[in-house]
Design goal:
Blueprint: E1 3-7, E2 26-29, E3 38-42, E4 48-52, E5 56-58, H1 87-90
Antiparallel strand pairs: 1-2, 1-5, 2-3, 3-4
């Protein structure tokens, strides 16, 4: 399974076994396991080696073969399954001035 990470900061390799990475670059990780603060992977130029784990953010995107490959595929959006706040409705005239009587929630029950 190929993990991807977005580079947050530039890193210039200084030692053998390290690779340089550039801000906003998309790198492929060989493993999500850190080795004393380092990750091993491949940069966009095909160079493989180590880079600081704190310089990248692992992306948790859905893995599909038909991704539009721009590296910015949106993560799964958190969609609220229900919103039970009544404060925005009080501005529309429902219970205005009552300040939270709670009586405005009964008419919003679906299926009845």
């Amino acid at each position: 399974m190929a993990l991807k990470a977005r580079v947050l900061y530039d890193f210039h390799s200084e030692n053998p076994g390290e690779i340089s990475i550039t801000e906003n670059e998309l790198v492929t990780l060989f493993s999500e396991e850190e080795l004393d603060g380092w990750l091993e992977g491949e940069n966009s130029r095909g160079e493989a080696g180590l880079f600081p784990a704190s310089y990248v953010e692992i992306t948790r995107d859905q893995i599909t073969s038909n991704t539009n490959n721009n590296g910015l595929s949106s993560p799964k959006a958190v969609t609220p399954t229900h919103t039970s706040y009544t404060s925005p409705e009080s501005q529309r005239g429902l219970g205005a001035g009552s300040g939270g009587s709670g009586g405005g929630q009964l008419p919003h029950q679906p299926g009845q």
